[in-house]
Amino acid sequence: MLIIDSKDCENIDKALKKYKKKFEKAKILTQLRGRQSFTKPSIEIREQRLKAIYKQQIASGKIEL
To answer: Does residue 2 fall inside a structural domain?
Structure first.
């Protein structure tokens, strides 16, 4: 649960902006999307490995963006 401390003189727009930032930092939406469907652990590990390989290739200069 996200709690936003708002002062009496603070504008509602500023409070909403703070809430949106906290919501993104907490990664709640990505967690909810991940829970919508089950993925096997072996598939998750495979995806992580492929991402790591891709990042290494970018860092080494084999792939240019």
So the answer is: no
Task: Judge whether 54 and 63 are in contact, CB under 8 Å.
Answer: yes
The pLDDT-based confidence of 64 (bands split at 50, 70, 90) is: confident
Give the count of domains, the chain.
1
Whole-angstrom CA distances from 64 to 47, 54, 57 are: 21, 11, 9
The verdict on residue 40 lying in a domain is: yes
**Inter-residue contact 26 to 2 (CB < 8 Å):** yes
Average pLDDT for residues 9-15, to the nearest whole number?
Answer: 83
User: Does residue 44 fall inside a structural domain?
Assistant: yes
Cβ atoms of residues 15 and 30 within 8 Å? no
- Per-residue pLDDT for 51 more than 90? yes
Q: What is the pLDDT, as a whole number, of residue 4?
A: 82
53 found inside a domain: yes
